[in-house]
Amino acid sequence: MDVKQRQLIKKYVDLVIHRWRLISISLLVGLTIGLGYYFSLPKTYQSTALLSYEQQQINPAKMDPEQGRSRLQESLATLKELVTSRNSLEKVIVQFSLYEEARKKLPIEDVIETMRKDISITPSNKGDIFSVSYQGLDPQKVMKVTNALASLFIEENLKYREERATETSRYTESELAMAKKVLDEKEQQMRDYKLKYFNEMPDQRQSNLAQLQALIQQNQGIQNSIQELERTKVMAQEQASMQQRLAAMRMSSEPIANQAARLPETDAERLQRMRLYLENLQGKYTDKHPEVRRTKQLIEQLEQKVGKGPTSVQQGPASASSNRAAIAAGLESQRLQVQLKQIDLNISQLREELATIPPQIAKYQRYIEAAPIREAEWNGLTRDYNELRRHYDQLVAQNLQAQSAENLERNQKGSKFKIVDSARLPEKPSKPNFLKIFLVAIAVSLGLSVGSVFVLDFIDTSFKDVGDLEEYIGVPVVCAIPYIEKETEKRKEQLVFRVSVAAVSAYGIFLVGAIAYFWIKGLIII
């Protein structure tokens, strides 16, 4: 620190010491004004109730859609608006006869706004807890109003949550009904489409292919059977023609008498003839041929008859044998005619059956060809179905949750507020704050007095020391003669100093005593 800085500091210190009377008087006046201001302010009392937010008791993660740490802030903000609404506060004002003078002079809206300013709702950082405070002039009313506001929080919360749960339930039911209607319409369209084009659907493709293959095989099998029957028919026609030629030859070679004396063919002779016929058939066809199977059955029947009949047959004369041969030939011819008719009937039936197969083949081919088209149409029809179904399932779950939440609220088992600490009678006013006013008065008075000292020094143009003079005239001072006080001047200055100190001290002691007195009497609350 150089010489100039030390001189500057000394100058200001000397200036403050020189003006100590002004500073002391300003400080005492400021304290007096502060004390008067304190007594002029009405005593305001404040009471606080502590409330907690309790989680619902039954599985809150599943039963209530309201989740997360923000639910207290959200509920608190909503309930604050409800509790501090005009209707709620007006009822409290009338119930406890609040702001009677203000109600006589001001509109009710201004009175309610004043009460809103007197209410303080503060959430705590320690969990789901918040406080409700109210300030007023009457400590009894302040306590009662605070407890009433806390109770109003609980009542409004129950009513609000029940109304919200009911509205949510109604909304979800309405949305669910609408979604169900849309989903039912979509499902009806899908059912109608599937019933109309069932055989052409992609999931029927494999079945249609199998059915088409079976029809093709059936068609080929019927054609093969018709060809086999036609070959059998040709063979039977040849046999019948041969029988007719043999009969004609026999008729022309035998006498008429012998023809009349013919005997019918015996079972043994017919059995022998059928065995020869079977050998002839087996040389042309397989054992699965219908004529071969029929001939075998006929041979078995004849063998049973021959086994039950006489063991031997007497041979007749040549004429009798000829007659029997002629009769046998006639019977064989009749059998062949019957067989031809049966073959024609079977061929006709097979042809009728064969005629029905191509339309069926064409139908299944059409089903198979239409499958890609139906698949594209079905995809377009069902594109929104999965989303509609998922939306419907979500609404069903939300509706169940809303109904459960509504039941919880009706049974008062949902999330709710609880009074942890009721408001108590305030023992001392919260406003005005004496220490705060006292410190402000000291700071203001000191600031004003010191500022006044510097302002007076600034406007004072006299020279206080040699440096000021040298700086002003620019010429060094050769000699400085100090001020020499007279004895009378010294006595006068000492008298003024003693009187000033005594007056300031007396007033300061009086002021401190007054403050102590008022504090003891309870008029000043620190």
From TrEMBL:
The chain crosses the membrane at residues 20-39, 434-456, 495-520. It comes from the Bacteria. It is a multi-pass membrane protein. Residues 176-246 form a coiled coil. It is found in: Cell membrane. Residues 10-95 form the Polysaccharide chain length determinant N-terminal domain. This is Lipopolysaccharide biosynthesis protein. It comes from Desulfobulbus propionicus (strain ATCC 33891 / DSM 2032 / VKM B-1956 / 1pr3).
